[in-house]
Amino acid sequence: MKRSLIIILLLLCLASGKEVYSQATSPKYSNEFLAIGVGAKSLGMSNTGVAHVSDVTSGYWNPAGLLDISSKYEFSLMHAEYFAGIAKYDYASFATPIDTSSHLGVSIIRFAIDDIPDTRFLYNANGAIDYNNIRFFAAADYAFIFSYARKTSLVPGLKLGANFKIIHRNVGNFANAWGFGLDAGAQLKIKGWQLGLMVRDITGTFNAWSHNSELVVDIYTQTGNEIPENSVEITLPKATIGVSRYFNIKERFGLLGALDLIASFDGKRNVLIKSDFASIDPNIGFEFNYLKKVFLRFGLGNFQEIKDFDESTYTSYQPNFGLGIRINNVFIDYALTDIGDQSESLYSHVFSLKVAMDKFSDK
Fewer CB in a 10 Å sphere around the end CB: N or C, the chain? Predict the structure, then answer.
């Protein structure tokens, strides 16, 4: 029963709720699979990375960071499972320099629930249950991100980047959507401090939904549900401001500290700082290293005010932990993350691999 309830809740998220059925909507939570994060390093630091990211995962966190890649080719892979393995999350990326002033990157993300039972034909013509009639489908979200970064002479040390992303979402044969959007990012180093800005969906990301209503019209009519219609869903812009700094601790040890402030502009959210104009969700992360070969990470984020049954309130948070090891040009990272309520059953194990190949000699 608990597993079925989780599947239903996830499907509601994947379909972006009832609002998506209107002619043009801007739901508060849209394309949320793109807010999960990528790379066990940043996930272990509670999704902090906008200011200091400097590898192939920059295509997600901040495309300006691609310019700090010193290899000719860099690849990354990640796999994670959420909600006790019900939802699968996969990520792959590639980056390469064009010249000494610009880089290109490509990223692919898939978040899906596979093998969902379709029980519309559970009963046969005689009214008896026939489990052989059960079919299965998947509810999946895909993102294809194309990144470009370039140095600029406007301000010394300023790096700029942009993403063009294509979104594809489908719920079996029942509904699917295609969309597109733009992101923009910047990074700047000032006296040891690293500053970053990432604006996602800067022009709004548009998803055009197409529904096969004839597949569900009979059941929806019997249950009194609204028949879904073709529609356009708009994802509103979201900005992240980040700051980080690296500290050398003696000769062999180092510490990286980072703070990201994620600002949304779609009304009040249940976050630490909220107003009618903007809601701000702070994330903080730390990474200790030994000889830059062994890494230990910790972070806190997703602060929320929760109302208890006795009407009192308390603040919840999401703790993240991570480990990493570097073997020559191969990076293996692990993160232990929680959905947000410190529930043991909802902890997720995230593994990622990064490989750098061929030194970029022109740098």
Answer: N
- pLDDT of residue 193 exceeding 90, the answer is yes
Give the number of other CB atoms < 10 A from CB of residue 310: 6
Query: At 37, which amino acid appears?
Result: G
Domain CATH code at residue 163:
2.40.160.40
24 falls in which pLDDT band (50, 70, 90)? low
Range of the domain at 65: 2-359
pTM for the full predicted model: 0.85
> Phi and psi dihedrals of 39, rounded to 5?
80, 125
Condensed to tens digits (0 to 9), the pLDDT of residues 204-246 reads 998 999 988 887 777 777 777 777 788 888 999 999 999 999 9
Look up residue 318 and give its two tokens.
């999401």
Q: Is 233 exposed, middle or buried (0-12, 13-18, 19+ CB in 10 A)?
A: buried
Pairing mode of beta strands 24-25, 231-235: parallel
Split into its structural domains, the chain has a count of 1
Residue 260 CB contacts under 8 Å (≥ 6 apart), including other chains: 47, 48, 49, 50, 51, 240, 241, 242, 282, 283, 284
